[in-house]
Amino acid sequence: MKKIALIIIALSTCLFACKQADKTSASPEIALSTFFKDSVAGVKTGGIQMVQISTPKGKFNVWTKKIGNNPKIKLLLLNGGPGATHEYFECMESFLPAEGIELIYYDQLGCGNSDNPKDTAMWSLPRYVEEVEQVRQALKLDSSNFYLLGHSWGGILAAEYAFKYQKNLKGLVISNMMMSCPDYGKYANEVLAKQFDPKVLARIRAIEAKGDFTNPEYMGLLMPNFYGKHICRIPLDKWPEPLNRSFGKINQSLYVTMQGPSEFGIAGKLLKWDRVADLPKLSVPTLSIGGEFDTMDPKHMQMVAGKVQNGSYLYCPKGSHMSMYDDQETYMTGLIKFIKGVNVGEKKVAL
């Protein structure tokens, strides 16, 4: 009997050890020296790589920069605007690298450090999708490691990329962007507009009716009454420097062509964009992020997570459009949990 008991104990110990080994191999810890090692041959550039892309109007260069090195988790970031820069994502450096998540910044064509052809014909959603695919190929990202996060306009681009190329993705994050621009416009008019002082709203509408968007009074009214309440709920004079720096570099040609002249509602080429009916086609693990005070309806964002095949929803109760700043702990904790969950095989992650 003692021999049988010893055998059972030995087998149990072995089984436990095997399970622990499986866990370790599924989610390996990366040594600091490995994570930050620059393995690029030749002259080091701090992770910066210029990627040449082909377009109907010729070849151009777009700017990318990676922070960290994890063969299993590579997060490519698509900025919003349209026409802003990667710079407002810099807050992620305070959270994600410490968790072994490799960050990849990328300025889309016409943005930041990338070439600017100054041709409105280039500001096209299908063309940008092909640009992202060319960047993916150049950076050697694939379904074993490629996570794509799109924020605001970047969320439209990320979703559109996934509809065509989800086979290349390991995980998708749609941050603070509804999947229907008509619904976004409706939310702005029927929900957000009603939160304005009626006199302020009337003056904003009067300026818009004249098309007088360069009038200083226009942004003077929008900044405290809209941007400070629904874009970033940190006092305007204390907005984070990376956010101000990024917004200060917005390509107005790109912004107005795609979005229209104001964040308060939508116009431009994206006016009729609507992909809600197609959401069930997405099988890649998808995280949808919404904020209570966002310009985007948080209930719509929850709906997105319910309609895709493998959806997770992150709700930021203190957050607005820039929830990565004004509800930072909720945003970063949820994002990290989602990525790590997908990395160990979870398709839906409880947040």
Automatic annotation (TrEMBL):
**Which processes are annotated in GO (biological process)?**
proteolysis
Q: Name one GO molecular function term.
A: peptidase activity
Q: Which UniProt keywords apply?
A: Hydrolase, Signal
Naming one, the record's GO cellular component terms include: membrane
* Record: active site: S152 (nucleophile), D294, H321 (proton donor)
Q: Which residues form the signal peptide?
A: 1-17
**A Pfam match:** Abhydrolase_1
Instruction: Quote the protein name from its UniProt record.
Output: Proline iminopeptidase-family hydrolase
Stated family: Belongs to the peptidase S33 family.
Q: What is the lineage of its organism?
A: Bacteria, Pseudomonadati, Bacteroidota, Sphingobacteriia, Sphingobacteriales
Domain (AB hydrolase-1) ranges: 75-186
